[in-house]
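Batch job 17 of 40 flagged for manual review because the log was empty.
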Amino acid sequence: MAISSAPLPPPRIPNVNDTTKREFLNQSMGNTLFFVPVNSGMLHWADNLICSLRKTTFDTSKIIFWALDLPAKVVLEGKGYVTYHDPSFFAVSGNENYRGDTKAYKKMMLERPKFFIDILTTGYDILFVDADTVFFQSPLLIRDLEVDGVFSTDNREFYQTHDAFRDVWRRGSRVPPICNGIFWMKSSTNSIKIWQDMLDTFNHHGWWTAIWRSIYFQDDQRGMDMLLNDGRAELVEPLPSGIKPDMLQGRYSQEAELSIRLLDQTTVVNGHLLKNRRSEYEQNLVKLRWGGKDRLAVHLNWDTKQMTKEQGAKEMGFWLLDEEGHCNIRSPEPLSAPS
C-alpha cells in the first residue's frame, strides 16, 4: 500500500457495548449477523426488501437494521425491528443516491470501515446487504463457512463473454471488482485487518497517500478492490460461471491469507448488468434454471444519474409496494419516515 512517512493514526477501538452484544446473541444465526444499512430517506427500500423476503423461508425478525440516523432508528423500532445505531458516525437523513452520489453520501461510505471493525471484533460473522436489494431465496445461502468472504460482483460485463480479469473497472489482476453492497465475511484477525488497513488509508494525512487515495482508493468499495488485489487474497471454488479453474493458475502467492468466493453474476446480479445487459441476463437466467438452479437476488445499484432506482425497479417489476407503500405479497405497515 502506498503510504508516505507520516505516522498512521492509532487502530480503531471497537464501540459495541455489552447490552448490544447481548442483543446480537439473540439475532445471530449460526454466528452470522444480518445487517441492512438504512437512513430515513431509504426506509421505502427497507419496506421493499422485507416484502421480497416474505416470499422466502428467511425469518425477517433476524434482520438488524443499521440505522444511520436517529429518525430511522425510531421508525424501525416502532415497527418492531431490531436496530443498531452509533451516533458517532457521520450520517444524514436524505436519499443521497437518488440522482447520483452527493458529497454527504460519499462521506457516509467512508464511515463503513469503522462499522465493520466494530461488528467483526465482537466475534460474529457478518452478512451485509444494501436496502436496494430484492431477494428470491434466503439470504443465508450467500454464507459459506469454508471461506473467509463471499462477495457479489461489480463487473459491467458477464464473465461468459468477457474475461473477468481484464475488466476495465478492475483494480488488480487477482480479484475482479467486488461489490460491498452484498457480501458475507467471517470474523477473524485477517478480516478485521483489511478494514483497519482501509480505515488507515482514509484517515492518513501523508501527502502521497492523499493523492493515491483520491485517484484509486476513493471509497469503501474501491478500497476493498485495491486491498483484495494486494496479494493478501485468493479466489477459491466454486467459481462463478465464466471463470474457469485454469484462469487462477499462477495468480496467487503462498502468502495469500484470505480465501474469497465470488457469487455467480446471474444468481446475484448487479444493477449495471440488470439494466444495461438485460437481454444477456435473461438468457443466462434461462440457462441457470435449465441447470436446476435459480436466481437468489438482484441489487438495484446502477448509475442513478441516468435513472433513479425507484424508476428502474418499477419498470423492471422489482418494486413490490403499492401506492400506499404496502407490500403486494403480504401487507406489513410501511416504514415511512415520520412527518
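Reviewer: the log was empty due to a logging misconfiguration, but the result itself is present. The CA atoms of residues 66 and 84 lie 5 Å apart. Unflagging and moving on to job 18.
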